[in-house]
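Good morning C.,

I know you're traveling, so I'll keep this short. The sequence:
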Amino acid sequence: MRRPPLRFAVDPIAHTLTGGALAAAGLRRVTPLATAALLIGANAPDIDALTYFGGDYASLAHRRGWTHGVLALVVWPFVVAGALLAFDRVRRRYRPGLTPARAGPLLAVSTIAVLTHPTLDWLNNYGMRWLMPFDGRWFYGDALFIIDPWVWLALGGVLFLAHSERAAAKAAWALFALAASILVFVTDDVPVVSRVVWAVGVALFAGARLAGVTARSRPATAERAAASALALVASYMILCVLANIPARAEVRAILASTGVADVGDVMIGPVPANPFGGYVVAETPDAYYTGRWHWLDTPRFTPQPAPIPKGDAGPVVEAARAAPHARRYLVWSRFPYFQVDRHDGGYIVRIDDARYPDGRLGGVVVRLDENLEPVP
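The tokens, ready to paste straight into the viewer:
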């Protein structure tokens, strides 16, 4: 049994950059502590990341659930705003000259920040449980890769311009740019053109900073840049969501033309740094048909020659499903499939999810004895 890799945790950088960009675009001025509210609120639902330390795939069963659902989205803004108002009272005891934070505006920016979190989470193919705790269904935007470098570049770039006056800040931003660039250049699936665009983008922001564009020297320019970056990122996200609609229809049509009937859920999962490409999974009652999608290719959908059998029936599979770590994995799994092998007088059952080809993000292995009892 393996612990799920840390990559199952959602990208916290995009959430933080979103809160920071909202502050830089002008919301920081609505009330004292607005920036803190935007940064904290944008990350607050991810307190459920603590379930990772529960082991045995506890994080998969509990992530993006209670703390991300509709009830939490009502409660979180009051928690964030209330905590900051309490902090404000304490700090003004020691610094009486500070302007007090205003409750109404603080609650408003906290609400905006909190709502950005599940929206960003929904956009990838990991999924979001919007209706928790009333309904555990998952919802998938299938629009952005879980770590999207274009969001990092646009929002991180304008925040770099806004907050890079001090030497320590410059060093921190340089380390971030280096780490992000390494990620872009060493990830196998990232196309060459994306690497070139990334390098040019980083160079342009560095050039703007060398030209003296900062929040202190040109506050209006920096604020407009942050607002423009947010608008650009929002447009990019909306376009990616809308593009999935005709793409899924085309996948269904191509599969139907090859004799594949009863197609249910279709995913065109985003791939790293390439909004034109995607990994396709189409579900039928007994198998998953996979392939590659690319908007600029002809044909746009290239199916794999053989489907992935679900293998989800039979007493051995049912016994494997009942194992605690398998139950947790299956809470999260969208396209689960089972592989059963005889081994040493018993069975080994591997459970994977077709969203992630070649088991690259891990799966579950259940060992059963001859009587279908779990073997530690």
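Safe travels,
E.
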